[in-house]
Specification:
Layout lengths: L1 H5 L8 H9 L6 H34 L2
Helix pairs in contact: 2-3
């Protein structure tokens, strides 16, 4: 989706788009790809766990009347 909305020039790519281009045509360097994918998912996980109590509070507030 990011390629559709942002384009594919090198200054507009998001991290997952860069990971796709790191694979190349033969799919080598799996150790670099695995490390990069782990680093990419760490930030959303930190935000999720930091905001989890607010998410649960909002879900419960809407369901109990």
């Amino acid at each position: 989706m990011a390629l559709v909305f942002l384009g594919n020039s090198s200054d507009q790519l998001v991290m997952t788009g860069l990971l796709k281009y790191m694979m190349g045509s033969l799919g080598g360097d799996w150790e670099v790809l695995a490390t990069s994918a782990f680093i990419t998912i760490v930030v959303p996980l930190i935000v999720f766990f930091a905001m989890q109590k607010y998410l649960v509070r909002g879900l419960l507030a809407g369901s109990v009347k």
